[in-house]
Each structure stands twice: as structure tokens, then as C-alpha cells.
Amino acid sequence: MLFYSFFKTLVDKEVVVELKNDLCITGTLHSVDQFLNIKLLDISVAEPEKYPHMVSVKTCFIRGSVVRYVRLNPAFVDTELLQDASRREANNIKGAA
Amino acid sequence: MPHQYFPGSASLLEELDKKLMVVLRDGRKLIGFLRSFDQFANLVLQDTIERIYVGDAYGDIPRGIFLIRGENVVLLGEIDLQKDAQTTLRQLPVEEILVLQREEQERIEAQQKIQYKVMLDRGLQPVTDALYEDTYS
């Protein structure tokens, strides 16, 4: 659940989602769920002439399984906090086993 | 918050009964009214049309009701009427768009053939689509 929590901290930030079909969508992160399905608002697409079906879309829901990368502004990411959180999660798993 | 009731894909609740464009893993684009969904993003679409895009043209084929298995869904887009009105795409009859689509497909295949030949000539094994099943068009 670490990355789910992490993505929840990025809500309302601008992100670029790159899909496995090479489509790059820039938009404001509206919501994310446990499968890392992503909902973006006010989207724009790189190379719109290659993806004419996307030009009239403003908000979209992206299935988590088709995402290749999510590109973030480094200013929104506290890597130390993330590192601590992942250690804590690893310890929790060890403790439970 | 709807999340508490339906942790899977809570955000789709807001899209129910709206006209959506669904992009599938095989590259097809379906436009219809979202009537039902579940946590896997299995979808039911009513009054669906399949829209085929070639260059700056498109054509619609009426398809009816779809039950889409979630794994085939790439994305669901809500069509913004304002943005839709600004597009310069032109609509063609089904027969014409199908001809254009086939021509484009043949162009792509011919190009691919040349690419494979060049690769083979240089001793490289071209990667065929079967290996790339996971990269959706």
C-alpha cells in the first residue's frame, strides 16, 4: 500500500503518465486507487496528431495495468520520507512473518 | 467518499451513465454509455459505436452493447463538448473509412517488411508482434 499512499500525496499535482502503448498524457492527478488506476483532469497529450481520439477528451481514467511510467516533478517527492516509509513497511512485513 | 464503499475503482462511479470513449488494448476506440463496472474495470457499454480514425478522418460503426473484460481496457475518456467542437476531424461514411483503414494497414505492413528485411540483412533477428503482445497499440 506504500505506493498507493504515496500517490495519494500527489493528488492535485501535475503528472505525466506514460502508457505501455507510448501514449504520454499530462494532467492533474484527481484520484488513485489500490490498483494504481489513475484519474487525470484537464489532460493534454504529447503528439496529438498521432492520437486524434484524445483531443476531445478532458478527463480520463487510466487502468493501472497499462501504465509504464508516471513522471513527477521532483519538488513534489520527499525521497527521504519515502525511503523511511519503505523501511518501515519492510519491517512490518518481517515482524508479521 | 465513495472509496469507503467500493475500494476497487471508486472513481468510475462518477462516470456512470455518461458517454465515454474507451480505448482498448488492441487500439480500438469504443464510444458508449457506461452502464456498469466492477473492481477490475470490467465494463458494460450501451448504444456503443466503434470509431475508426485514419489521419484527420474518422468513421463510426454502430455496435450495440458491449461487455468489456477489464484487462483489455487502456483508458476511459470523458468527451468534453467544448474541446470536441474545436476539432477539425472530418467524418466519413463507414465504407470509406474502412477502405482508408485497410490502405493504412497495408502501408504499415509494407514498411515493416522492409524494416525486417534490412534487419535480417544485417544479421539481426527482427522482433515480431508475438513477442510484443504486452505493448498495446
UniProtKB/TrEMBL annotation, chain A:
Its main location: nucleus. PROSITE patterns: SM. It comes from Capsaspora owczarzaki (strain ATCC 30864). The keyword Nucleus applies. PANTHER family: SNRNP CORE PROTEIN FAMILY MEMBER, U6 SNRNA-ASSOCIATED SM-LIKE PROTEIN LSM2. The keyword Protein transport does not apply. GO terms for biological process: mRNA splicing, via spliceosome. This is U6 snRNA-associated Sm-like protein LSm2. Binds specifically to the 3'-terminal U-tract of U6 snRNA. Pfam families: LSM. It is found in: Nucleus. It comes from the Eukaryota.
From TrEMBL, chain B:
The keyword Ribonucleoprotein applies. Interacts with SLBP; interaction with SLBP occurs when histone mRNA is being rapidly degraded during the S phase. LSm subunits form a heteromer with a donut shape. It comes from Capsaspora owczarzaki (strain ATCC 30864). Signal peptide: none annotated. CDD domains: LSm1. This is U6 snRNA-associated Sm-like protein LSm1. InterPro entries: Lsm1, LSM_dom_sf, PTHR15588, Sm, Sm_dom_euk/arc. Transmembrane segments: none annotated.
